[in-house]
Amino acid sequence: MITEKKIMDKIISLAKQRGFIFQSSEIYGGLKSAYDYGPLGVELKRNIMNEWWRAMVHEREDVTGLDASIIMHPKVWEASGHLAGFSDPLVDCLISKERFRADKAPMRTIGDLINITCIDKGQAKDYQNIIEKRFNITLKRNGKILEGLKVIEKNKIGFFENHETEASKKFDFPGYVSPTFNSPFLSEEKQFNLMFRSQIGAVDALGDIANFVNDNKHLDKDEMKQGIERIVKDSAVYLRPETAQAMFVQFLNCQQTMSMKIPFGIAQMGKSFRNEITTEHYIFRSCEFEQMEMEFFVEPGSQKKWLDYWRDKRLEWWKSFSNYPDNFIYRAHEKDELAHYADACYDIEYKYPWGFDELEGVASRTDYDLKKHAEYSGVKLSYFDQQKENPETGKMGWRYTPYVIEPAAGATRGLLVYLIDAYHEESVKDAKGNDTTRVVMKLHPRLAPFKVAVLPLIKKDGLPEIARNLVNNFMKAGINVRYDEQHAIGKRYRRHDEVGTPYCLTVDGESKEDNCVTIRDRDTMKQERIPINDAVKIVKKRLTKST
Ligand code: GAP
After folding, report:
1. Cis peptide before 531 (omega within 30 of 0)
2. pTM of the model
3. How many CB atoms lie within 10 A of CB 525?
4. How far apart are CA 514 and CA 524, in angstroms?
5. Mean of per-residue pLDDT scores for the chain
6. CB–CB of 506/517 below 8 Å?
7. 79-88, 458-467, 495-504, 532-541: lowest mean pLDDT where?
8. How many CA atoms, within 13 angstroms, populate the side-chain half-sphere of residue 350?
9. Distance from residue 438's CA to the centre of ligand 1 (Å)
């Protein structure tokens, strides 16, 4: 069985070798959890995002687009609750230095044994020494496990030397342990804001901070911190952690300029930034990523109907580009999972190599955001429907704050999903009849970076000229094409299989005689002879048919 790690390793390796995804700043050793989308990655990402835009904006009369600035007025984030609520309590393990979220850490109750679980015996020995030095106790080493600790009160652990019944030493602990090592030796919780903070204005706040520190040496640590925080806050701006808020803030402008009638939506796609504590699974969770979000404004009371509508629409959309539609499901949020602004939510999940996990959230966000922005800005963010009876007064004409359904998808996460979905290994015979493995990326033709490759069999006898002519015809038709004359033809086919090019057109010696080329299908490997003059038309037709 191919393990989760093996599949991910293969995809990561192919993505790098074939120019889909590179580690950011690789020549400087890389920047943790930041990625660059290479020559083929940028095509794939754009194709996914363009398809989303087409389905959500161009093919609908009730949705309009927006491309807002990434840096917005800081009040936006105060009103949305991001400044206050977008922070997680963080804790460091004093032994392993592991940093984790306190609210997600495993709890331990009275009577639980706390065995610190190390990676191997060597690490157990190191941690035993660190604990001995720092806490003056010697835990018993049992292979890679350190024993001797037990929870004796809600927030206390005892050290029981040689299985004695009385604890010879007691320590405070917060009721939870570190997720990886099961360590109870932890730092205090620290608030950590997930938004990236920057500064606007040419004058650096450092000068003001230096003056403040110099003039206020008598202040204690907390007072000093608050003073500095006040200075920084004056010029602080934030990189948006979601694209959503601009659509609430520009609700009136979009509605009025386009004369939109409720129900209607505003869609936006683009970069978002989060100072994620745990970045994981390659590009699944990174600090800089792209989102595709739509805020759909509806009449109060109709939100359930529209939530179900968008859940089904979005699930279908993801499935429509997949080889394995059954790998996409939706899951309703439990009450205790709901964000503070939501009255219901579904996650669209994909079966990643590590199991089902989130790909898109479809949330019923109530009227929370519009009301908050109205409160903080003083601008009425409401909608007047002349044709509707006000349910309270019974009179015609109803002014209300719309409710919002939000399908919020990750574009870069979607790219990972389609890479996993496309990755296939097949056993085929090579030219000598030996079994070999063919790696083929069965990307949906609409998503594939190149739609067609044109390959002259040899680099002479006029074949490159015929091929280049054909390439020009594809370019003129707006079909992304690749001219490729390097290496033997078999190797070129394999190369294009690995990047998901649906069709290869080979120009050979006979092309000069019969004015035909061979078209090879990526998935079936079937080859057919077609007239050169019809090549663009035929490829176009096949690409359209595949949708
Ligand atoms: N406006 C609502 C919102 O932003 P979210 O569930 O936090 O909701 C929506 O994000 C989608 O954005 C997620 O389903 C996921 O696909 C993507 N996403 C969120 N954080 C991400 C990260 N750190 N890296 C990559 N994608 C992320």
Report:
1. no
2. 0.84
3. 14
4. 25
5. 93
6. yes
7. 79-88
8. 27
9. 34
